[in-house]
């Protein structure tokens, strides 16, 4: 085998977004595209000479080919060892754990997460550092800068590695170690939760349903929920990972996980349901006839985490992304915990977790996690829920009602307008930025603005600042509207409108969220003129 130095030219647009670089699969498969970005990534981290890396992905179309290319490039750049999940598979949280467990210098995860997969859908690639967490903005900026000046990349000429064979193989001087993607992760889960208690909950007749959506969590959920926790075979739906996720959106929300939602709202449905996304870091929790909004899930986990052995000594603090509802803030206030508000994306939690300032964090986009890894973790959230239910011996619906009675209910919804013309979406945001200073005191559809800003974040650990992270409008009645553009899409712009209101009266806790939020929805429309700017009469996806 021989190391080739291949001349290349910069390719435009290799700029990582909220969570890595995401593009149409055909773009990633284009000439030099993957190679250029991989070399830019290696260069941005100071080279990979003698380093140990973790590598794997969610199994979507092109995952296996990309793994082979990255391995040959790592070999050409002198990496010492790459730990790869069998078949090229690793969920995002399992990859994060493996980096930490093995003391690796970093890892590459191939996924476009909840975006659909296939040759005409999406592909993605992200880098996580030695702490197991997503590269901070300072590093992704360097990757992008390097991609704009790249003139060559290095790659080894060699045969493919046998990705299905466990154990070590050589690629010139590089050791490729193929590992079981599930085993270490499952062991970590057993160390955090009371598996005996969950087993007896299940043995006692509590019925579960977990929708893996033909994405990466299938094998993980089967091993943990069916094999180790003893749930009946078939508890895990759509358990076979497929390169195109069976043609679906592997996005665990009521819209895309409709099969599970229908089960959970059927008369003889299961007691507890959950779903995860393409790369296994998101979760949706549903009780029998009771949907749990992700922001409520975070608050409930924060209020009850102590019931699980891994969190018995209590929490250091909590963090949520800015658009996530303030339900968890009320839990933190009552418990006297530090509570942080960060920009969207898990990379902003890393410093707080590393510094021991927070134990739990979460996002409204079906993401929850803790300091056990440095990514959000879908199955982890499911197991923490089950552990809590096993101790409290309550249904999900009862737990929700009890939580709202104690803390008040935060009604919450997100409206997404997808594939909007970028110039229109930018114009909407620009217009709002221009209005901000004058908003306090003005009324929209009967709601009066108390404060408004474009969210900026000062990282209390490293002192870095991130600006323009979302338009935030607070109303005098405690309601809130947030608007921002997505950083994970691959077509046009996606406008996200986050709506929230607060209700203390338990008699008013049983409303449908859209109904309860109707006045806030009307205020958002009057303020931002969403219909005019997007040309849409209603959102494409409501969660
Ligand atoms: C979205 C979510 C954000 C999440 C990100 C990555 O980003 O809103 O909360 O962290 O996806 O999740 P954006 O920029 O499109 O709003 V995943 O599971 O797609 O890695
Ligand atoms: Co994901």
From TrEMBL:
Keywords: Carbohydrate metabolism, Glucose metabolism, Isomerase, Magnesium, Metal-binding, Phosphoprotein. One of its GO terms (cellular component) is cytosol. It holds the Pfam family PGM1_C_vert_fung. One of its GO terms (molecular function) is phosphoglucomutase activity. The keyword Isomerase applies. Its EC number is 5.4.2.2. PANTHER family: PHOSPHOGLUCOMUTASE, PHOSPHOHEXOMUTASE FAMILY MEMBER. Belongs to the phosphohexose mutase family. This is phosphoglucomutase (alpha-D-glucose-1,6-bisphosphate-dependent). The lineage of its organism: Bacteria, Pseudomonadati, Pseudomonadota, Alphaproteobacteria, Rhodobacterales.
């Amino acid at each position: 085998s021989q190391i080739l130095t291949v001349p290349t030219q910069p390719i435009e647009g290799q700029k990582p977004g909220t969570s890595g670089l995401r593009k149409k699969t055909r773009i990633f498969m284009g000439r030099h595209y993957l190679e250029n970005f991989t070399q830019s990534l290696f260069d941005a981290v100071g080279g990979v000479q003698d380093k140990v890396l973790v590598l794997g992905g969610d199994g979507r179309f092109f995952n296996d080919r990309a793994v082979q290319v990255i391995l040959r490039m790592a070999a050409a750049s002198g990496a010492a060892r790459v730990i790869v999940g069998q078949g090229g598979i690793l969920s995002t949280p399992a990859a994060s754990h493996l980096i930490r467990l093995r003391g690796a210098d970093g890892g590459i995860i191939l996924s476009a997460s909840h975006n659909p997969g296939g040759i005409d859908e999406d592909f993605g690639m992200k880098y996580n550092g030695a702490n197991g967490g997503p590269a901070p903005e300072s590093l992704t900026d360097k990757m992008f800068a390097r991609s704009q000046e790249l003139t060559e990349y290095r790659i080894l000429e060699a045969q493919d590695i046998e990705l299905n064979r466990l154990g070590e193989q050589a690629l010139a001087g590089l050791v490729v170690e193929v590992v079981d993607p599930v085993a270490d992760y499952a062991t970590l889960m057993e160390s955090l939760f009371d598996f005996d208690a969950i087993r007896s909950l299940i043995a006692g007749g509590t019925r579960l349903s977990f929708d893996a959506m033909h994405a990466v969590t299938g094998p993980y959920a089967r091993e943990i929920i069916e094999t180790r926790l003893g749930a009946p075979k078939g508890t895990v739906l759509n358990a076979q990972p497929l390169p195109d996720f069976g043609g679906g959106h592997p996005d665990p929300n009521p819209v895309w996980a409709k099969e599970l939602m229908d089960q959970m709202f059927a008369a003889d449905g299961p007691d507890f349901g959950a779903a995860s996304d393409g790369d296994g870091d998101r979760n949706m929790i549903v009780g029998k006839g009771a949907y749990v909004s992700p922001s409520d899930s975070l608050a409930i986990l924060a209020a009850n985490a102590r019931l699980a052995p891994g969190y018995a000594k209590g929490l250091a603090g909590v963090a949520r992304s800015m658009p996530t509802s303030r339900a968890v803030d009320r839990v933190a206030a009552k418990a006297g915990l530090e509570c942080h508000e960060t920009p969207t994306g898990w990379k902003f939690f890393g410093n707080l977790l590393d510094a021991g300032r927070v134990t739990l964090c979460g996002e409204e986009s079906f993401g929850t996690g803790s300091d056990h890894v440095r990514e959000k973790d879908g199955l982890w959230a499911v197991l923490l829920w089950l552990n809590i239910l096993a101790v409290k011996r309550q249904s999900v619906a009862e737990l929700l009602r009890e939580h709202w009675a104690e803390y008040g209910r935060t009604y919450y919804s997100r409206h997404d307008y997808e594939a909007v013309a970028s110039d229109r979406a930018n114009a909407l945001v620009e217009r709002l930025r221009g209005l901000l200073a004058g908003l306090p005191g003005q009324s929209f559809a009967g709601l009066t603005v108390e404060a408004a800003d474009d969210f900026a974040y000062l990282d209390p650990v490293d002192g870095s600042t991130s600006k323009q992270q979302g338009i935030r409008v607070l109303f005098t009645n405690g309601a809130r509207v947030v608007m921002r553009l997505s950083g994970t899409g691959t077509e046009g712009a996606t406008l996200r409108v986050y709506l929230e209101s607060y209700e203390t009266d338990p008699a008013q806790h049983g409303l449908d969220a859209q109904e309860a939020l109707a006045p806030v929805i009307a205020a958002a429309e009057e303020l931002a003129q969403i219909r005019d700017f997007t040309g849409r009469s209603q959102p494409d996806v409501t969660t």
